[in-house]
Design brief:
Rossmann fold, 7-stranded parallel beta sheet, 13 strands, alpha/beta, 15 helices, 2 domains, globular
Length: 376
């Protein structure tokens, strides 16, 4: 007699989610949702802004929540409001916490999967086990007065795993919360089609370099200051992403506005020399870097902990600490042999160390099962 397989009932919360297939917002949440939906050990409900969710996933948002979250997304999300309109952001944060609190108390939920630390605060008063994905931007939240104390109270009430998506975050999380929760790095994956990108020489024989980012001063970092004089007709910088701050663009930067994975995968990554990110932002493990490396595209990156975790200088990419290093990196990677070898090493690293979103989903399911520890 066959035994009926019982799936884990998991509620995942997120405050960012793509509205459609060409929306850049919350793309990693959509990728993870799709991978978890395919996993036979999980029955997934999703509380997130409105968008195209997989057929097998239950929409956990009410009509009121969906309207509210959609409006929040159109205004740039919580992080953008905190940067630009703090008075309004305070009321918005309170509204978010109240709505999340009601969602976390839904009947039948066995494990709550929370994305972003601030979204864990409404777990207060519930005993449900929680897996909390920690991203680089969360470290700005942890610097706020009293935030660590509040989160410690939340963690003390339940079994919990804090899951940063990069190892560099572990020491600080261990120090702050290691006595109350397990700290387990769970790296994201990439969509399999990125590994199938076929690179070719640009038909115009121009060296095309790409920067894909939200346009803020911290995300741009030193790119415009260091890049002045290094780019021109024969070596072009193409800039993609939403303008979220009043950033003055130099005349030599080709700005294309927001983009989406299909456009990068089919039009830009195949003919580019590489990706450049000189961010000073609190980065976790930037997804666009993982996707570029999976496509065999070399990366020039600022010397941040998040970047050092995946970019080995002169092997899987190039780390730049000043303008001179950026110039040397551009020249070195424009050598076809260096470019090809670096791109291949980067691709192998991503395939062997991180894998696909399906691999990532299995890592999360293992964590869910550990949280329940046979108590189903």
């Amino acid at each position: 007699m066959s035994v009926e397989h019982k799936s884990l009932n998991v509620l995942m919360s997120a405050t960012s989610y793509p509205e459609n297939s060409v929306d850049w917002r919350g793309r990693f949440i959509a990728n993870l949702t799709g991978a978890l939906e395919k996993h036979r050990d999980v029955s997934l409900s999703l509380w997130a802004p409105p968008g195209e969710i997989p057929h097998g996933v239950t929409d956990a948002t009410t009509v009121s929540d969906a309207c509210w979250l959609g409006d929040l997304s159109r205004r740039g999300g919580i992080a953008h409001l905190l940067r630009t309109r703090r008075a309004l952001a305070a009321w918005t944060v309170l509204g978010l916490l109240a709505r999340l609190g009601r969602a976390y108390r839904r009947p039948g939920v066995e494990v709550v999967h929370v994305n972003w630390l601030q979204n864990a605060l409404p777990l207060w008063g519930t005993p449900r086990p929680a897996l909390i994905t920690v991203l680089g931007t969360d470290f700005g939240l942890l610097r706020l007065p009293g935030m660590k104390t509040l989160l410690r109270h939340v963690l003390r009430q339940r079994r919990a795993i804090l899951a940063p998506n990069a190892d560099w975050m572990r020491p600080a999380l261990e120090q702050a919360f290691g006595d109350l929760a397990e700290i387990r790095t769970i790296a994201f994956g990439v969509d399999r089609p990125w590994f199938d990108v076929v690179r070719r020489v640009a038909p115009d024989n121009v060296s095309h370099w790409l920067t894909v980012t939200r346009l803020t001063r911290d995300k741009i970092g030193d790119l415009f200051a260091w890049g002045d004089g290094l780019f021109g007709p024969g070596r072009q910088l193409h800039l993609f992403g939403p303008m979220q701050e009043a950033v003055e663009l130099p005349s030599w930067a080709h700005y294309h506005g927001p983009t989406h994975p299909a456009d990068l995968m089919t039009q830009w990554f195949p003919v580019a020399c590489g990706l450049i990110t000189l961010s000073r932002h609190d980065e976790g493990l930037p997804q666009v870097m993982l996707e570029a490396m999976a496509a065999g595209l070399p990366v020039i990156a600022s010397d941040l902990p998040a970047h050092r975790e995946i970019v080995e200088h002169r092997h899987t990419g190039w780390l730049a600490t000043d303008r001179e290093e950026l110039a040397r990196g551009l020249e070195w990677l424009e050598n076809p042999l260096n470019n090809r070898q670096t791109g291949q090493a980067a691709q192998c690293y991503i395939r062997d160390s991180l894998g696909s979103w399906d691999d990532c989903a299995s890592r999360y399911v293992d964590a869910y099962e550990q949280l329940l520890d046979g108590k189903r």
